Structures are given as C-alpha cells and as structure tokens.
Amino acid sequence: MTEINRRGMLQAAGLMTLGAVTGCAAPRSAGGKDQTVFSIAQPTIPIVGSAERFPVRRIYCIGRNYAAHAREMGSDPTREPPFFFQKPSDAIQYVAPGQVSDHPYPTLTKNYHYEIELVAAISKGGKNISVENALQHVFGYAVGLDMTRRDLQAAMKKEEKPWEIGKSFDKSAPIGPIHPVASIGNFTEGKIWLKVNGQVKQSSDLKNMIWSVAEQISNLSKAFELQPGDIIYSGTPENVGPVVRGDVMEGYIDRLPSISLKVV
Ligand code: MN
Questions:
Q1: Does one domain contain both 168 and 84?
Q2: Ligand 1 center to residue 219 CA distance, Å?
Q3: CATH value at residue 255
Q4: In which domain, by residue range, is 96 found?
Q5: Nearest alpha-carbon partner for 145 in 105, 168, 172, 178
Q6: What pLDDT was estimated at residue 160?
Q7: Residue 165 in contact with residue 139, Cβ under 8 Å?
Q8: 100: CA distance to ligand 1 center in Å?
C-alpha cells in the first residue's frame, strides 16, 4: 500500500467515525452547516401594546451628558465632545412596571451607584446619520439605569485602563418596557428623577442633556454603523450616589411608567 493510499483510507475511516457519531446525535435540521453547537439566549425587551419583543443587539451609553453630572465627575462639560462606551447586550435586566423587582448587588464593589437614564431603541440602522434625520431611526423609548461599580470605574480611570469592570457587568442595565414612538412621540424635555427608599436623589429635566438623542445618534453613527436592535442610554443627571442591599430604587421619566428595583 502506498503512503498516499494508506492516508486516504485512514481519512475515510475517520470520516466514517465522525458520521457514526453525528448519527447518534440529535437530528439536524436542513441547512445544518449553519447550526451552532449550542444555543444562546437573545436578550429582548417587551414592547408596550405589542405581543412582539424588541431584540437587543448592542447597548451604547453616552458619558457625562448633563453638565452638572460632568462637573461632579470632575470634568469640564463645555470642552468635551460626546463619548460613548458599551455594555454587553445580556447586561439587560428587564424590569416590569408596577412591581418591585430584585436586583443583585454585584461582586467586587463597595460603592455601587445608580444612574437614571432615558433609553432610545433603534429599529433602523445607518452610518453618518444627520441630526435632522436621526429620530427617524428611533423605534421607541424606555426608562433605564446605568448601574455602575463606581469604585472600580474610578480605579480604572486613575490607571488609564478601560472601564469595563465598572460599567459592563452582568445585570448592569436594568430597563423598563419600550414605548413605541408611534404611540408616545419623541423625548426632548420632561422630568427625570430617581428615588431611593422614597427620597429623591436625582432630579433634572431631559432638556438639560448636553447632546440630544438626535445628536447622540448622529455622533454614534460616525463611529459605528448603527443596526436595528441597538439601544442608547442617553446619560444621567447629577447627584449619582450609592445603594446598599435592601434599598429600593425607583426611576421615572415623564410620560413613562416608573420602574422599581430592590437591591438584594
Ligand atoms: Mn451613565
């Protein structure tokens, strides 16, 4: 037997073995070459007035988008162009209005902060979107919290390292249901507040945003091609602060039902 023949027979035997193993596995659907070895959950958010849910592709967050908050974080808001960071899509924690949902106190931190934010959900993608056309890309809006391990974020900032550990951990993006623009319109002003144990901690107006939702979309789309399923946390007003286990946070934006979470 030549070397080539022997190798060919060994390969054929190998393929037969593989075939036998595959034959024992669960039957594959047509077009099985696109099938994955296991499935992962697609994060989704309920849509008010619809049986369908909004699938989340990416979570973008703008930093320091209210002047008073930028100042409390130690920066000068007047000189800063907008900047963005991401959370993983499965950082979503859906919070149904009208009830108090448990929210786990995360590992590693001793200074866990709330940030109440308006969230815009994108259903039409694009690059280099103009400010004038930007709101045509919005599907709807929700109340969200950009939860932050402030001590870890501060430590990473000090060392000029990435923020992920402070911002992009599991369940760091609680969010209420999405209200379609078609039924609720767009948001350029309106009260935004957060209470802890019934006490107002953050209170401002959406009109105090440095960069509007339309400007955020336009700016983001220069750096990334936006896609349907992207959501944008539009920044928090001043007076961010800590919560501990047992605290109940309530987040509210005018025209949207509030969301409540108990830190456990
Ligand atoms: Mn934030």
A1: yes
A2: 17
A3: 3.90.850.10
A4: 41-263
A5: 172
A6: 96
A7: no
A8: 22
